[in-house]
Amino acid sequence: MFRPRPLAEARALRDAGRREAAIAVLERFIAEGHAPPEAHWMLGRLYLAQSRPAHAAGEFRRYLELAPQGPYAAAATLRLQALKPITEPPQEAAQEPAPPSAPLTAQQQVTANRLWDQAAAAERGSRLAEALQLYRELLQAIPDYARAGEVYERMAVCAAGLPTPDHRQADHYYTLAAKEYRRVGDRENATRCRRLAAIEAEAARLETTSPKTSPAPPTQVDQQAAEQSAKQKLAQEEARARYRQAAEAWERGDLTTARMEVESARRLDPKLGEAYFLLAAIQELSGEWPAARQNYLEFLQLRPRSPQADEARRRAELLASRRLLLSADFEESGAPGVLVPTGAAADATGTAARQGAGGAAGTSHSLEVPAGNEARLHFEPLERGAVEVYFYDPGTPAERPAVTVATRQGKQVTVRAGQKTYELDAAAQQESLQRSEGWHKLTIETGERAVTAFVDGNYLGVVKPPGPLRTLTLAGPAGEGKSLRYDKIRVIAEIETEEAARSG
């Protein structure tokens, strides 16, 4: 049986929630003596997640010894600084964290979630003045909000990113964020925000002392150029800090924060090539392929000799050969009109129910299919490409998700949750993938020779090609099960090279 490389195997085990198994793989790999620095970084993060700070600190130090200028060097240094009070004897009495804020009422929680989501959406859309106002309203509505540090930090980012940057206001909000982080005992973020406040304060000072007259006398030209260069340097430094925050959020799977931070970095420094690459990766995962391809190409223009250039070129070419036949997300009210629930237990209105979801799918809503029902989706015949769908596995015997794709002739390929593993009906070859509670991504790829199924990127099995796919069916639980949830449906066609070139 094919055995993946140790890092890839450890990453897959980590993403599947099997941390102890991932740790065992990495410890064995490192003991063999040929592990790259990244193995120590990954192992340190796993140790940290397992509440083993001394072990984590040792791996972070080893990473910095092997790769002092590596891609995770800044993050490893920050983690070591955060772990220092735990792994080393204190040099002075530590400040006691503030007592926890009083729990929010149900109405306050609704208000907080609404304003935070609206502000984040405005920020993603580059409507920074609107986002700033919404963040202010959040703090006015809930003065003792437990996440005030995060809110003040987002306000600082918005103020610094305005068409005419307000550095003085950004300095003020970073300072408030640092105080809030310090108040709750979060030293790492408090230190980072104090440093960013100093950057904004220096930018504000330069802005205040810059001559306002135009045109400048010849004697002031050099001074203005020097001050402009200093402002640009400060903006670039803050952009790099934002990019590091985005990369860390990407590493831990927080795509919303990663996107906000990397877009802030790009606004501050439009020539920061790494920001384009990371944003493209986020957009690709979100199904925004034209925008992702454009950002990969922008990265290649800015960093043509980067070690990531070949990967960016490959991703751009791959995205040019894809066409999204159908996309269904359930973040807005109402299911797509082409999604039709069927079965004896269909409700009186003939529409699929929806409820809050959260989880790995990264959504606030999902499609809920009740017991005895099916939700069926029709699309253009798919000869080459993939069908993607997220499903929530409750992990119970009575509630087993099942996804079926079928041809116009009715030939079917079904992936279902069995008693303990995920199963592919009529598979010529199949791996044993254990069921686990939570959101999972199912990918069914079809081509000229076979139909292949993957769960969370892990190979499940292969069946003979049944012909062009035409229908997707999402099953509710049988018997006494309550309901099953699905989300983020994609039907992706691979188009011929000539057509791809024309569409690109």
Description:
By secondary structure, this protein is an alpha+beta fold. Among the domains are: 6-86, Serine Threonine Protein Phosphatase 5, Tetratricopeptide repeat (Alpha Horseshoe); 248-320, Tetratricopeptide repeat domain (Serine Threonine Protein Phosphatase 5, Tetratricopeptide repeat); 326-499, Sandwich (Jelly Rolls), CATH 2.60.120.560. The chain contains 16 helices and 16 strands. The protein has helices at residues 6-15, 19-31, 37-49, 53-66, 73-87, 106-124, 128-141, 148-161, 167-183, 187-209, 218-251, 255-268, 273-285, 289-302, 309-320, 497-503, and strands at 322-328, 340-342, 353-356, 365-370, 374-382, 385-393, 402-407, 412-417, 421-424, 429-430, 433-434, 438-446, 451-455, 458-463, 469-475, 483-494. The strands form 2 sheets. Strands 1, 3, 4, 6, 10, 12, 13, 14 and 16 form a 9-stranded antiparallel beta sheet that branches. It has a 7-stranded antiparallel beta sheet with strand order 2-5-15-7-8-9-11, with no helix packed on it. Helix 1 (6-15) packs antiparallel against helix 2, helix 4 (53-66) packs antiparallel against helix 5 and helix 14 (289-302) runs antiparallel to helix 15. The protein is globular and about 75 Å long.
